[in-house]
Each structure stands twice: as structure tokens, then as C-alpha cells.
Amino acid sequence: MQKGILFAASLAGLLAVIFGAFGAHALRAVLSPGQLSIWEKGVQYQMYHALALFACAVYLRTHASSLLSKAAICFVAGILCFSGSLYLLATSDITGISTSIIGPVTPIGGLFFIAGWALIFAESLRKE
């Protein structure tokens, strides 16, 4: 599981940097400032949670924890739902994807992020 989490962390971080550069260079000319802000928020939260995934992977190298494994799963789901929906919302004028379909997915991703952090908090309260 630890190796899979490390894979997810590295892929999420790699893509966050690529998406950040893509937004700053390619999308700046085609998105409104509001849309670009939405894109950047997706990148920001993706990178935060890529780092959280990395921390989970590092911790799991020396400590078995089903709570941290579940937190990592929540972070991956959160990145896909929260950041992914923001990327789609920001580019909806270009892609033609309806925002009414995407909009409700964003808070679900936020709930996954909250659940992941709550699981880490629960792990911190466990006795060794």
C-alpha cells in the first residue's frame, strides 16, 4: 500500500506542476481572470494533498496504519473530485461541459479532503 501511495503522491505532484505551468502560460490567454483563479485553486489544493499523500507514504514506511491508508485514499478521491471538477469548471467554456453537472462534485471532493485530515487526526490520538 505504501508504494501505491508514493506513486499517487508523485503523480499528483507532477501533474500539479504541469497544470500550474499550463494555466500560467497556455490558459492565461483564453480564460477570464475568474476562470484562471478557479484553475489555480485546483492546482493549489492538488499540490497540498500531493504533499499530504507523500507524508502518509513516508509515515507508512515505519508504522502500519489502516487509518493513514484510508486517509491517503480520501486524498486521492479528493484530488480527483475537488481539483478535477475545478479544472473542468474553469475550462467549461472551452470544453462545453455543463457546469450544472460538474458543480456538485466539488464539495464532495472537499468532504474527501476533510475525511482524510480527520483520519490523520484520529491516527495522532492513537496510543503507540
Explain the overall architecture.
- The chain is an all-alpha fold.
- The protein has one domain (2-123).
- It contains 6 helices and no strands.
- It has helices spanning 2-27, 33-60, 66-90, 92-95, 99-102, 105-125.
- Helix 3 (66-90) runs antiparallel to helix 6 (105-125).
- The longest helix has 28 residues, at 33-60.
- The protein is elongated and about 50 Å long.
- 32% of the residues are buried.
Sheet with the most strands? Answer: none
Strand portion, in percent?
Answer: under 5%
What's the shape? elongated
Distance between the termini: 21 Å
| Integer-rounded radius of gyration | 16 Å
| Percent range of helical residues | over 70%
Indicate the mean pLDDT.
95
Tally of contiguous helical segments: 6
Number of strands: 0
Structural class determined from secondary elements:
mainly alpha
* Low-pLDDT segments: none
Q: What's the helix-strand series?
A: HHHHHH
What is the domain tally? 1
